[in-house]
Amino acid sequence: MKRELKKQLRRLYKKEEKLLNRREIGIVRNKVSPIVGRIQDKIPGKLKDTLEDAFYIGFKLVFEKGHKYIEKTYDKDKLKLEHDLNNYMLEINSNRKNFKSLDKKAKSSKNINSAISILEGGVLGVLGIGLPDIPLFISIVIKTIYEIALSYGYDYNKDEEKAYILLLISTSLSKGDRKKELNEKVDILARQIDKGNNIEIDLQNYIKIASCTLSNAMLTAKFIQGIPIVGAVGGLVNYSIIRKIGNYSSLKYKKRYLMKKARKDLL
Q1: CB 115 within 8 Å of CB 242
Q2: Per-residue model confidence as pLDDT tens digits over 84-127
Q3: Does residue 175 come out as left (phi exceeding 0), alpha (psi in the -120 to 50 range) or beta?
Q4: Sequential DSSP letters for 197-209
Q5: Furthest-apart CA pair in the chain: how many Å?
Q6: Helix, coil or strand: residue 217
Q7: Which of 125, 146, 229, 264 could make a disulfide contact with 129, Cβ separation 3.0–4.6 Å?
C-alpha cells in the first residue's frame, strides 16, 4: 500500500474514533443533558408523530419525484469529471496535495449548503406552521450528500445507495452507543455494496429510521432554543444539522474511496 494512502487512512480512523467517542464536557453532562431529557419527555407525542410523518412523506417525495429537480441545482457531469481528474492525478502521484484536491469539492458542498440552510430557516416555523417546507429542507440535506458522493466517485441512483445515504443521516445525528451501532451498519453496508453483493433493501424502513432521527433532532433543538421560534434561530438549527450530516458523510465516503484504493493496491 502506498505511503500517503496509509497516512490518509490513519488520519481518517483517528477522526472517526474521535467522532464516535466524543465525550460531553462535565457541565453539559451534568446540567444540560438532564434538561434535554426532560424537554424530550415533555414534547407532545402527537407533535412527534406529526413531524415524523411529515419527514417520512418528505423523504419519499424527494426520492421518488424530487431526484431530477435536485440534480438541476448542480452540474452532475462536471462533478463526475472533476472526480475522474482528481482520481487520475492520484493514480499518477498519491501525494497529500492531490488528496486535498479530492477533498476540496466535498468541503465546498458542505459550506455552501449549510449557508443555504440558514436562509431556508423557516422549517417548522412556529412549531407546526411551515411543515410544507420540510421537503425543501430534506432536498438540501440530500443535495449535500449527493455532491459529496460524486466528489468521491459514488453514484446514488440504486436503492442500496439510497439506503446508505439514509443510514448516514441517521448515524450523523445519533449519539453514544446508538451512534457506534449505526456506524458499524454503515461500514457493513458499504462493504456489501462495494463488493457487488446482492443486498435485500427495505428502503421504507431506512426512511422511517431517518425520519424519526431527523425530526427528533430538529424538534429537540427548537424546543431548547425556545418556542415560538422563527428566522435566524431556525436557520442556525438547520445549519448545525446540515454540518453534522455533511461532515459525517464526507468522512464515510472518503473511507469508502480509500478502502477501494487500498484493495486495488493489494491486488
Answers
A1: no
A2: 999 999 999 999 999 999 998 888 877 776 666 555 544 444 44
A3: beta
A4: ------HHHHHHH
A5: 59
A6: helix
A7: 125
Residue type, 118: I
pLDDT digits (tens, 9 = 90+) for 35-49: 555 655 666 778 778
> Looking at the chain, how many residues does it have?
267
> What pTM, to 2 d.p., does this model score?
0.86
Question: Is 93 exposed, middle or buried, given 0-12, 13-18 or 19+ CB atoms closer than 10 A?
Answer: exposed
Angstrom distance (rounded) from CA 44 to CA 245 = 26
Measuring CA to CA, how many Å separate 2 from each of 86, 107, 157, 170, 261? 17, 24, 32, 33, 9
Q: State the cell numbers at 162.
A: 439510497
Please say whether the dihedral angle defined by the alpha carbons of residues 224, 226, 232 and 235, taken in this order, is positive or negative. positive
Grid cell for residue 121: 430557516
Compute CA distances 3 → 7, 90, 94, 255, 265, whole Å: 6, 12, 8, 16, 11
DSSP secondary structure letters along 26-40: HHIIIIIHHHHHHHH
What's the Cα-to-Cα distance from 135 to each of 2, 18, 125, 218, 220, rounded to whole Å?
Answer: 43, 32, 14, 14, 19
d(CA 57, CA 63): 10
Place of cell 449548503: 113
Q: What are the grid coordinates assigned to 7, written together?
A: 497516512
Q: What is d(CA 124, CA 111) in angstroms, rounded to the nearest whole number?
A: 23
Under DSSP, the state recorded for 260 is H
- Burial letters 99-136, b for 16+ CB under 10 A, else e: beebbebbeebbeebbebbbebbbbbbebeebbebbbb
